[in-house]
Amino acid sequence: MKKFYIIIGMAVFVGSFSMCHKSDVFSESGYDERLTGGAATVFDATTHAFSDPMPGLDARDTRVHQIGDQTFAQTFVAPPSPIFTGLGPIYNNITCINCHRNDGEGIPTSGSSNSGLLFRISQPGKDVNGGPVPVPGFGLQIQDQAVFGAQPEANMSINYTDLPVTYPDGTTVELRQPVYLLQNPYTTLASGYMLSPRLAPRLVGMGLLENIPESTILSFVDANDANGDGITGKANYIYDDYTKKTELGRFGLKANTSTLLLQVATAYQQDMGVTSYVQTVESGDGQAQMSVVHGDVQPELVDSLLNYVVFYVKTLGVPARRNVTDADVKQGSTLFNQINCSGCHRPTVQTGVDVNLAGISNQRIHPYTDLLLHDMGAGLADNRPDFLANGKEWRTAPLWGIGMLNITNGTEYFLHDGRARTLEEAILWHDGEAKNAKQKFMNLTLTERNQLIKFLQSL
Ligand code: HEC
Ligand code: HEC
Questions:
Q1: Whose CA is nearest to atom 37 of ligand 2?
Q2: d(Cα 307, Cα 265) in Å, to the nearest integer?
Q3: Could you tell me if 51 and 182 lie in one domain?
Q4: Measured between alpha carbons, how far is residue 334 from residues 312, 390, 396 in Å?
Q5: Does ligand 2 lie within 6 Å of residue 343's CB atom?
Q6: Which protein residues are within 6 Å of ligand 1, measured from CB?
Q7: How many other CB atoms are there within 10 angstroms of residue 46's CB atom?
Q8: What's the structural domain count of the chain?
Q9: How far is ligand 2, taken at its centre, from the CA of residue 382, in Å?
Q10: Count of alpha carbons within 13 Å of 189, Cβ hemisphere only?
Q11: Is 269 within 8 Å of 275 (Cβ atoms)?
Q12: Is residue 253 assigned to a domain?
């Protein structure tokens, strides 16, 4: 009998030991928590973590992805050049990759080839489609670069002032409050304009986000705050110039773009001055300097290349989580849910079906966003409406990949204009609907705050 108990005891011991080993990777439910992007997850923790194709693309799709990749990194030049022509006459940068560095984020400077910060501009009111009203002579975006013979629309000066924040435990953190000034407009600029700074975000899981069913996103809205957590959330609806329809917004920092096709085509047109079959008119249309320097064939970008770049962005993989079994990371994850960061940064979402692309079809993903707009308070406000987004509202920033930025980009800048230099600063700027969560974060002990940050770094 005694022997029998020893054998059982040993079996339990061995059993629990092997379970323990398994939990290095799997949680109790057997689910691998590292699979941030489901089947689109890539195991690459190098500088290229954002740049790998999702696994499982067939030979043809791989080839299209590669051509898209090359075009994404291609420098465009002013006409008349035989290839990759059409840059400008006014623009913000000469290639996608200068802003989305390694498919990651931009640098929050303005006016040079490594600047990833751009400024939207508009007048008060709404246009016929409910969108922002362009400023005569300037349109909807300040192009701060120009080809030879043309003038940039203006320069932006960026300054920061210190803003100290003190935790209940006495710890102090200096935030930096940006001050933006438009200088040297190339022509008269009527007063009363509104500016919105936007830093190029990292391009993680774009195809998966595009494939989340509209009904899922709408189900996250809690317009009357029925659960009393102070979080409501709002879907943006935007007018899509290409489909000529009002559509749900998902992309852009105010969910101000509907599809990847429109997003990429608008990047070519607004950010680089390159027209395409989707955006056929130059951003500087109507400016006197347009006719002087731009006699080239329109649209400037070959149709297939636009489609390939869209496919490239859509089929980028999502970096796997790291350190998921670390005790601090696990505790940080629990705290993240307990203080309701998860109220907006939704940990788990299911994508819809895509019969052409298995990697994004019916995947359980962990984007840490609801793709909804939230009032983030006066401190983060740009005070410039964008379709249904008011001046205080921003789209919940997806947090997947956020812990890889210091490796992919070397530098880390957070929030819509890159004002936050650390994850802690980013959290401390939260206000409005996120005020409760921010206050609960501030009331945590230093150890707990560090655990939460460690969790974010594992994403
Ligand atoms: C001047 C810098 C700049 C350049 C050049 C640029 N982008 Fe962007 N990109 C941005 C900014 C800023 C945003 C956010 C825009 C907004 O809020 O409307 C953005 C957003 C995006 C998004 C949506 C991301 C999201 O999370 O919703 C995609 C996709 C994208 N860009 C792809 C491209 C491609 C492809 C190119 C080249 C054709 C390109 N970008 C060129 C700055 C840039
Ligand atoms: C009410 C919704 C809401 C809640 C609650 C919330 N966030 Fe956010 N979060 C946002 C929005 C919206 C942004 C983008 C704000 C901006 O860019 O100005 C953001 C941005 C961030 C960023 C910067 C992301 C980036 O890529 O720059 C981090 C980090 C972050 N949140 C972490 C947290 C943590 C941790 C908590 C809990 C303490 C939390 N958030 C609670 C809505 C929320």
A1: 341
A2: 9
A3: no
A4: 35, 32, 20
A5: yes
A6: 72, 92-93, 96, 99-100, 106, 116, 118, 198-201, 203, 206, 251-254, 256, 260, 263-264, 267-268, 271-272, 309, 313
A7: 12
A8: 2
A9: 16
A10: 21
A11: yes
A12: no
Query: Hunting for tokens 């951003």 — which residue is that?
Result: 283
- Predicted TM-score (pTM) of the model is 0.93
Q: Would you write out the chain's pLDDT as a tens digit for each of its 459 residues?
A: 444 444 444 443 333 333 333 334 445 567 899 999 999 999 999 999 999 999 999 999 999 999 999 999 999 999 888 889 999 999 999 999 999 999 999 999 988 888 999 999 999 999 999 999 999 999 999 999 999 889 999 999 999 999 999 999 999 999 999 999 999 999 999 999 999 999 999 999 999 999 999 999 999 999 999 999 999 999 999 999 999 999 999 999 999 999 999 999 999 999 999 999 999 999 988 887 776 556 677 899 999 999 999 999 999 999 999 999 999 999 999 999 999 999 999 999 999 999 999 999 999 999 999 999 999 999 999 999 999 999 999 999 999 999 999 999 999 999 999 999 999 999 999 999 999 999 999 999 999 999 999 999 999
Tokens of 443: 């009331």
Domain of residue 166, residue span = 63-206+260-314
